[in-house]
Automatic annotation (TrEMBL):
This is Glutathione S-transferase. Residues 1-21 form the signal peptide. Residues 36-122 form the GST N-terminal domain. Coiled coil: none annotated. GO terms for biological process: glutathione metabolic process. It holds the Pfam family GST_C_3. CDD domains: GST_N_Sigma_like (cd03039). One of its GO terms (molecular function) is glutathione transferase activity. Residues 124-248 form the GST C-terminal domain.
């Protein structure tokens, strides 16, 4: 019996030795996947976000560690010229997201890049299309918000009133898009476990509508899909912590 047990023990040792020698599989952090330190450069509009806020919310939602380089409007002319002269952004615009030596511009495009590199982006073309469609529509929405909120004082009241009057139609359009796209178990387009670049675009603009008081605090009650999206993103740990510290 002793000999049999010894043989059995030896056999089991050989059988399981390859498994024991394999390295333990661990999850790679989003920062490790990006491959370098992350820095977001944008205007210091906090608590208002703007396009830089859209990028900030994405980084927070995905648990990416980053530093911020925030500057005033007075600094912008020199910064803009430096971006053009250096070639870092021939468009001369911010935000800029620097990842190691890589400097990315155009907020929706760079957000898509971050989702792809960190592996949270969908692999199905139809789901990527849905996120891109949201991002495309957001871009128009964002321009109209900027034109109203940052208008010259003699034109601001009229442009803000025009923007506010158009909000119900715009919210209804995005509500319909989410009815079509968010068919899974989560409120995000494509039904994934985390919000992606299109979802964050919509969240960021909903947030800025609130932050600049162009939308009533209870406006989302009429749009259950948008309300669910906003609540889900706002509850993500790093987003919730930022909102608790900065949101008005």
């Amino acid at each position: 019996m002793t000999s049999l047990n010894a043989k059995l023990a030896a056999w089991l040792k050989v059988l399981y030795a390859p498994c024991a020698s394999q390295p333990v599989q661990t999850m790679t952090s989003p920062n490790a996947k990006l491959g370098g330190p992350v820095k977001l450069s944008y205007f210091n509009f906090v608590p208002v976000g703007g396009r830089g806020g859209q990028v900030r919310f994405l980084l927070l939602a995905l648990g990416i560690e980053f530093e911020e380089d925030l500057f005033s409007l007075d600094e912008w002319p020199a910064r803009k010229q430096a971006l053009i002269d250096s070639g870092d952004n021939p468009c001369g615009a911010v935000p800029i997201l620097q990842i190691g030596d890589l400097k990315l511009f155009q907020s929706v495009s760079l957000a898509r890049y971050v989702c792809s590199v960190t592996g949270v982006g969908p692999t199905e073309p139809i789901k990527m299309y849905q996120q891109d469609a949201l991002g495309d529509e957001y871009s128009t929405w964002r321009v109209q918000w900027i034109s109203a909120v940052f208008a010259a004082e003699d034109k601001k009241a009229a442009l803000v009133a025009e923007y506010v009057a158009a909000l119900p139609k715009r919210y209804a359009m995005f509500e319909t898009m989410y009815t079509k796209f968010a068919t899974g178990s989560t409120p995000y387009a494509g039904g994934g476990p985390l919000p992606l670049h299109g979802d964050i675009c919509v969240f960021a603009q909903l947030y800025d509508d609130r932050a600049t008081k162009v939308a009533a605090p209870d406006m989302l009650e009429q749009y259950p899909k948008l309300k669910a999206l906003y609540a889900a993103v706002a509850a993500l740990p790093d987003v919730a912590a930022w909102l608790a510290k900065h949101a008005a």
